[in-house]
Design a protein that fits this description.
Blueprint: H1 6-16, H2 18-34, H3 44-96, H4 103-112, H5 114-122, H6 138-147, H7 154-166
Length: 167
Amino acid sequence: MDLTPVGMMRRNSRINSPAAAEANENTKNSAISSQPKDSFSVSQAARDFIENQKRLREVQEEQARSMLEKSEDEADMLDQQLKYMKTCQKIASRVMKGDKVPLKDLKYLMEHDPQMYKMAMTLRQIPSGRKPKKWDSAVEDEEKASEDGGETGEAVEASGSDGAAAE
């Protein structure tokens, strides 16, 4: 025989009943909703700082774009100067060997690099024992390369290598 106090029986019956479980959940939900919610507030100084950082980033991006455009322009200019120097060196080399160079090439050399022209004329060798080679204009090669769509100098190199092999 089981002797249990009456109060305990009542309490156990309330705990085990489905209505008691619902009441227990309602008290949990009300406890959760009564708790303070998380909130985030930003001071005016912090907002100003963030706005200044955004403006600064935009200014830096604009400066980077303008520097990129400048560098592209400079690269194009340097590429053109390099083509002039390459052609001038080719003409000067031919003059120094004592070969016959077209007048157009000599004028081109004098116009684009007077120092190299003086040096080439000073160091010109008089061919002894061999017949001087007669060259076609190197300036025409450069003009053809620029007309063909601005090739990167491969046409000039190809024609220069043919001339070097013929020596």
